[in-house]
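User: Second chain of the day. Same drill as before.
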Amino acid sequence: MKNRYQYHSRDMSWLKFNYRILMEAKDEKVPLYERIKFMAIYSSNLDEFFRVRVASWRRIVGIKKKKIKAGMMFSPKKLLKDILVEVETQQNEYGEILNDQILPSLE
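Assistant: Same format as last time:
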C-alpha cells in the first residue's frame, strides 16, 4: 500500500510558510503599513534562508562522497533545484505585489 502522505523537505515546508507571509502582504484588506512590514519580513526571512540553508545545500551538492548523499531522503541536487524554482516563483509574485499594489498605494 502506498503511503498517502507526501513528505516534503524541511526547506520546502519553510518556503511555503514564508510564502504565507507574502500572501499577507498581498491581502488588500490588510492596512498598507502592515503590508509593507510583511514584505520586509518575507524578504528578511528569505535572505537568512539563503545565507544558512541554501549555502549548506550548495556545499553538500559540492561534496563528491556518495555515502553522504545515499543516506538522505532527498537528492541534494534536486532539492536545491526545487528550492531555486520555488524562490523564483515567489520572487516574481513579490515583484508584482510591490509594483502593482504597494507602490501605487503609496502614491
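The helical segments are 10-26, 32-62, 66-70, 76-106.

User: Great, on to the next one.
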